[in-house]
Amino acid sequence: MRTLVATVMTNAKDKNIYCKASKVSDEQIKILRETSQAELESIGFTFIKLISLEYSDVKGQAIFFEGHLDVMGRVLREMRKYG
To answer: Distance between CA 22 and CA 32 in Å, rounded?
Structure first.
């Protein structure tokens, strides 16, 4: 099962703006923001690039977890303990 966790859009100043799914906590998003994409991918996250057919300069990604949100919460807590 693949669960949508958040979407990330990059603004003109190359800052990432996160929009979290409703059942994802602020603490979980904070962990995602502070962790490299490579590390997140190694623990079960998938990043899919978003594009706009109308605006070529739009940059973004959808972040998915390969599993249920409760499993994601446990994985992030474990990562926080040992990271």
So the answer is: 15
Sign of CA pseudo-dihedral 46, 65, 12, 58: positive
The closest of 44, 42, 34 to 71, measured between CA atoms, is 44
Q: Say if residue 20's pLDDT is above 60.
A: yes
Q: What is the pLDDT of residue 78?
A: 86
Look-up of token digits 């603490």: 27
Q: How far is CA 41 from CA 34, 47, 52, in A?
A: 14, 8, 24
pTM over 0.90: no
User: For residue 4, with 0-12 CB atoms within 10 Å meaning exposed, 13-18 middle and 19 or more buried, which class applies?
Assistant: middle
Strand partners, 23: none
